[in-house]
Amino acid sequence: MRILLVEDELKAGEYLRKGLTESGYVVDWVQTGADGLHCATSENYDLIVLDVMLPGMDGWLVIRELRKTHATPVLFLTARDEVEDRIKGLELGADDYLVKPFAFAELVARIRTLLRRGPIRESDTLQIADMEIDVMKRRVTRGGERIDLTTKEFSLLYLMAKRQTEVLSRSLIASQVWDMNFDSDTNVVDVAIRRLRIKIDEPYARPLIHTVRGMGYVLEDRT
Amino acid sequence: MKPWAPRSLTVRLAALFALATLLTFTLVGSYLYYSLARQLESHDDQELLGKVALMQHLVGKAGSVQAIRDDPHLFMDAALGHNDLLLILRSADGAPLLDTQPAAGNLPALPLSAIDQTPGQQSRKNLRTSAGMPVRATALWGKIDRSGEQVQIIVAHNVSDSVAMLDSYRSQIVGAAVCGALLSALLGYVLVRRGLRPTRLIARQAHSITAQRLDRGLDVASAPYELQQLVLAFNSMLDRLHDSFQRLSQFSADLAHDLRTPINNLMVQTQVALAQPRNVEEYQGLLVSNVEEYERLARMLDNMLFLARADNAHVAVAREQLDCHQELQRIADYFEGVAEDGGVRLSIAASGNMLADPMLLRRAIGNLVANAIRYTAPGQVVRMEASQQPHSTCITISNPGPQIAEAAIPRLFDRFYRADPARSDSASSAGLGLAIVQSIMKLHGGQVELSRSADHMTVFTLNFPKPPDV
């Protein structure tokens, strides 16, 4: 997957390229809107990460020009999040919008969502290592043993299983599982994860839920 | 302000005074002028009618027209000593018989009243002779008793004196009216200026008010009664400004302080780590600690932006019908784990629906519940309740916590305020939670209240007003 990163700030460009490359993407980084537009129209990218505030030709102009010929998905990065800005970005054809400061895990999650071809296949059962999740019956077994979960615990596990190997930030988990869309100062998510671990990981040899320090949590089979 | 009206109140009032004076003088003057004219005229008429009667008598006694022509002395005598009297006699065919003052020139033709009739108001005319003398004249037929011949009698009274008198009187009145108007304009200007002196005094006081001295206000006692309302309103506006200004200054100071602490932590921690080589775990520990600090800063910025926007009503409130119990249950589910960790139980008692923005509602209740759990001892219960009042839906979050000091209550909802200053290093709360609750309630047109219940619970009440049509 090739990503074009248009970001004028050196530090930000450096770490975004590094982070995205380590997440498995091929990243080209340019620092001006004009270069960005040139690359975007002359090469083939799967996604463009575009900063709004660029010297000379800003992000709005770039996307306006780009949309005349290309339908490449565009993810905007901006430090401004006035409602008007958001609306403007989406009207001009942006596919998503991320406000600085954002969590890196959040960025990666958004990029994955944009790059997904078609909707996620909602399968009836999910299998991770020796754990099986029956979505319809809301039943979880591990190594053949039935595990009893509360409704919210199941929602949390199901979310992580659906997006296994993705690092999920705390705010994303809070929003998806409890529909709480604000960052609270409490460690609600950490507590919930800990309680889930007691049920699905602790009795077994191989842990499936992993903490990515400073970023969030991921469900994956690390064998 | 109408385009034709001068901007100065003083000038405008002075001009109006002048106009009123001019109008009054003109009306009074006109009345006096006309009544004088009437008097003079009736005096002239008396003279005229006297002479007419005399002439009728003399003509009656004359022998014939010829006799009058031959010996006009009798008639001349009648006019003697009356320089302002013109007597003209003509025969029936209009031939002149007598003219006491030929120098005065001819008179225009006059309608002749019948014999033996006193000329009425209609037949007495104000005229000018051909020489330009203003006269009051009348004409009538006379009859010589003996011969039965008819004679035209024309009597005219010179009214130049009256006319001159009226003329000078008129110019005096005009002069007086103009002078009076000017005088009252001048007086009005001076008096109004004096009368408005308190406003200039108030303006001078207002000039000395600056951002640092907003609390000075204007002196109500020195203001005249009519301006006291204005001064009081102005002062209360100043008080509100002063209050906001104080809060804003306090907010800036708190903000700087609250940013200083975490940034200092980040800087020093990182510098200490860099001072000598460390092992990987230590570096990772430092980075994780930094990320936590950064996340806190980001949260704080988010909350501050939210507050700033809510203040300027830039936050869209998308109201929906929500089930109270369901909403409280959702939040209880969210905090369930945290509460259990603290040994705190959450109880819910709620009924009915309410109209609110779900995102904002959850944020407000979430902040209160997080606080309640934080301050509740293990084994205790945090109560979440919703009840329907006639005009509002009340949501209360109560917990048996330590009593909040009376002094702290008014400031509790201020930004960055913490009832316990020593908690300023608390990693969990930036001190914006309650300020956000208050902002959200304002956006909904409701309010948040803090009280102490009979069973020693700290109770936060959210009042969501019901729309009038429900």
From TrEMBL, chain A:
Q: Does the keyword Phosphoprotein apply?
A: yes
Q: Which UniProt keywords apply?
A: Cadmium, DNA-binding, Phosphoprotein, Transcription, Transcription regulation, Two-component regulatory system
One Gene Ontology cellular component annotation? protein-DNA complex
Q: What PROSITE patterns does the record point to?
A: OMPR_PHOB (PS51755), RESPONSE_REGULATORY (PS50110)
What residues bear 4-aspartylphosphate in this entry? D51
Q: Source organism's superkingdom?
A: Bacteria
Please give the biological process terms from Gene Ontology that the record holds. Answer: regulation of DNA-templated transcription
Q: Which Pfam families match?
A: Response_reg, Trans_reg_C
Where in this chain does the record put each Response regulatory domain? 2-115
Recorded protein name is: Response regulator
Q: What is the lineage of its organism?
A: Bacteria, Pseudomonadati, Pseudomonadota, Betaproteobacteria, Burkholderiales
UniProtKB/TrEMBL annotation, chain B:
* Compartment(s) where it occurs, according to its Swiss-Prot or TrEMBL record: Cell inner membrane
Q: What is its EC number?
A: 2.7.13.3
Q: What is its main location?
A: membrane
Output a single Gene Ontology CC term carried by this record.
plasma membrane
> Which branch of life, at top level?
Bacteria
Top enzyme category = transferase
Q: Name one Pfam family in it.
A: HAMP
Q: Write the record's keywords in alphabetical order, separated by commas.
A: ATP-binding, Cell inner membrane, Cell membrane, Kinase, Membrane, Nucleotide-binding, Phosphoprotein, Transferase, Transmembrane, Transmembrane helix, Two-component regulatory system
GO molecular function terms attached to this record: ATP binding; phosphorelay sensor kinase activity
UniProt-listed InterPro entries: CztS_silS_copS, HAMP_dom, HATPase_C_sf, HATPase_dom, His_kinase_dom, HisK_dim/P_dom, HisK_dim/P_sf, Sig_transdc_His_kin-like_C
Q: Where is the HAMP domain?
A: 193-246
Looking up CDD domains in the UniProt record yields: HAMP, HATPase, HisKA
> Would I find Cell inner membrane among this entry's keywords?
yes
Q: Which reaction does it catalyse?
A: ATP + protein L-histidine = ADP + protein N-phospho-L-histidine
What are the residue boundaries of the Histidine kinase domain, all occurrences included?
A: 254-468
- Report the transmembrane regions from the record: 173-192
Concerning NCBIfam families, the annotation shows: cztS_silS_copS
The function of this protein is: Member of a two-component regulatory system.
Q: What's this protein's name?
A: Sensor protein
Q: Which organism is it from?
A: Collimonas pratensis
What are the leading ranks of the lineage? Answer: Bacteria, Pseudomonadati, Pseudomonadota, Betaproteobacteria, Burkholderiales
